[in-house]
Amino acid sequence: MTPSQDVDQHPPASQTAGERVEPPSPSDPIFPRSAPPSDHGIGTDSAGPSSAPTQDQPQSADASANASPNPSLRSRQQEAERAKKSNMIRCVASRSSHPHRPVFAPLSVPRSRRLQTLGVLFWALLLPISIALFFLILSVPLFWPIVIPYLIWIFFIDTAPESGGRRFPRVRKLAVFRYFAEYFPISMIKTTDLPPDRPYIFGYHPHGILGVAAVANLATDATEFPASFPGITPHLLTLATNFTIPIFRDVIMAMGICSVSRRSCESILRKGKGNAIAIVVGGASESLNARPGTADLTLKRRLGFIKIAIRNGADLVPVFSFGENDVYEQLSNEEGTKVYAIQKRFQSLFGFTLPIFHGRGVFNYSIGLMPYRHPIVSVVGRPIHVKKNPDPTKEEVEEVQKQYIDELMNIWDTWKDAYAANRTKELTIIA
């Protein structure tokens, strides 16, 4: 098998959407304790969302023959076979006599994988394409009678980003988002039911470089969320500055994305039962620590979303995405370096920062800005019930935060051997 081989397979789903998944048993042979190498996009086999981990070695033929007839277990065993093929490809690539030469994608890539790549390109280029399209329209005087009122509407009239957005279910169901999720693939596991008789705040961890699983799981219907949590309407939140960008703002609002301001949060939660907001808690600071094999979280000093939950009586639900930090490599930027100082200065000026990162390319597997094909599994934890209090005390906020962190650590400890077998360190709350 050569490094240029690219296999397209569609693994059967290992989890029926909507079913609660039990934590893996340490003795389960499909969850090895050995650490598989991170998939950097070379010949990966998975083509559809799956909640099963990648691993180095499949079971033997005898073990497979004696395996449980459970379809979930069989599908994971099949995925282990695919993982072995993928690992063989990576080993060949790593032993190349020219390690610094790029490994190019073959010309004969299956159509489904082309579509997955296009799905990721669509999301990655949506912002620059929106800006370019706007200036193209602006350059034509014939459109000025439309453009000028539109700009006035954006900056002075429209309050939708602060009041729930303009959600269009058909946009969330577009095939392009399904291809986007299948590229990695991205999947979601529910550990308990969430009754739609109250509002919720989903805390998403880690931020990663771009938070791709947050988009797939909470801003589209491409994964298991709609079937797993019927009656709950999620709104992924982002910086208010994104809603000043023409065209782009309207697309993300159609996906249900809203501003992360306090006014926006409370406006959505006050709509009542079944409404939920999703906050990527670590924010820009956490993205600077996103590296493969790690889970360094900025959480201890994040009390704003805890206060909002208490003031509105919204239950807190931690979500941890295994693999989010593994889809990009990041330039070393330890505290005290010039790179770190520049990034923090940029953050202080614009409210966000730009990690210096790289992944694979569109036509090569070695370098570029496309994310690596690495499975991301988002585990939704148990909710922390919050009693409504319009004026919470510091002690009350800290107690709720402690419960939240305990449940987040429980998710990590329960699932890390299954979905973070290639970790280089344990989950750490660094700030």
From TrEMBL:
<keyword id="KW-0472">Membrane</keyword>
<comment type="similarity">
    <text>Belongs to the diacylglycerol acyltransferase family.</text>
</comment>
<keyword id="KW-1133">Transmembrane helix</keyword>
<dbReference type="InterPro" id="IPR007130">
    <property type="entry name" value="DAGAT"/>
</dbReference>
<dbReference type="GO" id="GO:0004144">
    <property type="term" value="F:diacylglycerol O-acyltransferase activity"/>
</dbReference>
<dbReference type="GO" id="GO:0006071">
    <property type="term" value="P:glycerol metabolic process"/>
</dbReference>
<protein>
    <recommendedName>
        <fullName>Diacylglycerol O-acyltransferase</fullName>
        <ecNumber>2.3.1.20</ecNumber>
    </recommendedName>
</protein>
<keyword id="KW-0319">Glycerol metabolism</keyword>
<keyword id="KW-0808">Transferase</keyword>
<feature type="region of interest" description="Disordered">
    <location>
        <begin position="1"/>
        <end position="94"/>
    </location>
</feature>
<dbReference type="GO" id="GO:0019432">
    <property type="term" value="P:triglyceride biosynthetic process"/>
</dbReference>
<comment type="pathway">
    <text>Lipid metabolism.</text>
</comment>
<comment type="pathway">
    <text>Glycerolipid metabolism; triacylglycerol biosynthesis.</text>
</comment>
<feature type="transmembrane region" description="Helical">
    <location>
        <begin position="118"/>
        <end position="137"/>
    </location>
</feature>
<keyword id="KW-0443">Lipid metabolism</keyword>
<keyword id="KW-0812">Transmembrane</keyword>
<dbReference type="Pfam" id="PF03982">
    <property type="entry name" value="DAGAT"/>
</dbReference>
<keyword id="KW-0256">Endoplasmic reticulum</keyword>
<keyword id="KW-0012">Acyltransferase</keyword>
<feature type="compositionally biased region" description="Low complexity">
    <location>
        <begin position="55"/>
        <end position="72"/>
    </location>
</feature>
<keyword id="KW-0444">Lipid biosynthesis</keyword>
<feature type="compositionally biased region" description="Polar residues">
    <location>
        <begin position="1"/>
        <end position="17"/>
    </location>
</feature>
<dbReference type="GO" id="GO:0005789">
    <property type="term" value="C:endoplasmic reticulum membrane"/>
</dbReference>
<comment type="function">
    <text>Catalyzes the terminal and only committed step in triacylglycerol synthesis by using diacylglycerol and fatty acyl CoA as substrates.</text>
</comment>
